[in-house]
Write a structure and sequence with these properties.
27% of the residues lie in helices and 39% in strands. The protein has 4 helices and 8 strands, in the order βββββαββαβαα. β6 and β7 form a beta hairpin. The chain is globular and about 50 Å long.
């Protein structure tokens, strides 16, 4: 399993108070392509997934998130292939930092056509759409987003880190 850390700001007090959020992401392959969620507004590609809600385990959260974001149902959740821990400046003044632990799993989807997406408001505003694409191409396009966009989505760096390490 790959374990990586990503610091979004340099001077965080990691000994201080924090809020930690657990999230899950699915790496789903079909031939030489993988399932990504694309935002034409941002131009970026991310793997489907999101935060674990209260009372959910990782598999339940994966199944819910993949269905909501892509319309696909998972037929199998495989092993955890990566953990990326991100550190951000906390928005709350009483906290020193925010930590996001993204657990990446190899998954398979059921055969057949996807159902309709059930996106969160911010996902709808970004016009997020499921697409099948070669991971190398998604990596290349995400690097362009970081290079050309003064404020890229915060998840784009995480997805670049995952895709770079996956190909090694």
């Amino acid at each position: 399993m790959i374990e990586l850390k990503l610091h979004h700001q340099n001077s965080l007090n990691l000994q201080g108070k924090s809020f930690i959020r657990e999230a899950v992401r699915a790496y789903i392959r079909k031939g030489d392509k993988a399932l990504f969620i694309h935002s034409p507004k941002n131009g970026d590609y991310k793997l489907p997934g999101g935060g674990i809600e209260t009372g959910e385990d990782r598999e339940e959260a994966l199944r819910r998130e993949i269905l909501e974001e892509s319309g696909y149902s998972l037929s199998a959740v495989g092993s955890e292939i990566a953990l990326i821990t991100e550190f951000f400046q906390a928005k709350e003044p009483e906290l020193d930092y925010f930590q996001m632990n993204s657990h990446y799993f190899a998954c398979e989807i059921e055969k057949g056509e996807p159902s309709a997406q059930n996106l969160d408001d911010y996902e709808s505003k970004l016009e997020m759409t499921p697409v099948w694409m070669e991971p190398r191409k998604a990596l290349e396009l995400n690097r362009a987003v970081i290079r050309d966009n003064p404020s890229p989505p915060r998840w784009t760096k995480r997805e670049i880190l995952f895709l770079e390490n996956l190909s090694q």
